[in-house]
Sequence to fold (198 residues):
Amino acid sequence: MNSEQLPALVRGLQPAIRTPRLVIRPFVPEDAPAVQALVQERQVADTTLNIPHPYPDGGAASWIATHGPRFAAGEDAVFAVTSGADGLVGAIGLSLSPAHRRGELGYWIGLPFWNLGYATEAAAAVLWYGFECLVLNRIQATHFSRNPASGRVMQKVGMSHEGRSAQYLMKWGRLEDIERYAILRSGYGGPPWPVEML
Fold:
C-alpha cells in the first residue's frame, strides 16, 4: 500500500479519539500485559480469525510493536479501546486499502466487558475516523455467522448486511460461514454521539 494515497493526516502520528465513555488511542508497549490477559480467554479467541489459543507468551508485545510501522505505511490503524471505569477493554482497527479508498473494520472486546456497549461506541468512533479523517469511501466488516452479537454492533453503527459466504474460512479445523456488512460514505450519517480527536 502506498501511504501517499492517504490524506496527510494519516501520515503523521496516529491520533486518539474520545467518545462519551471511551478514549480510543494507539497502543503503547505498557499495554502488553493487559492485552495478554484479555486475549488468552478462549471465548475471545473463538470469535476472531487471527487470535490464537492458547495465546503465546510475549505475543501481545510483538503484536503491539507492529502497529507503528503498519500505520506509517498506510496499512492499518489499530487502536486500544479504553474506559475510564475499566481501563483497557479491547482493540479496534481498520485494515486500509488506500488505492480503493476502502477500510475493513475489526475489533475484539475482553470477556469481562462484553454486553456493555463498548464495541458499538468504539465502532462508531472508528467509522467517523475512517470517513472524516482518512476520507475513505467504503468501510466493510465480517463476522462468523455463529456470532450474531458482532453483527448487531455492525447494524447499530449503520452498516448494511451484504450477504453470507458459506464455509468461507477455517477456524481451529472448522469451516466457518461469515456475514458481510458495509457502509458507504454516501450513506454515512455521522456518529450517534459526540466524537472528538485528541
About this structure: The radius of gyration is 16 Å. The chain has five helices and nine strands. Strands lie at 17-18, 22-25, 76-83, 87-97, 102-109, 138-144, 160-171, 174-184, 196-197.
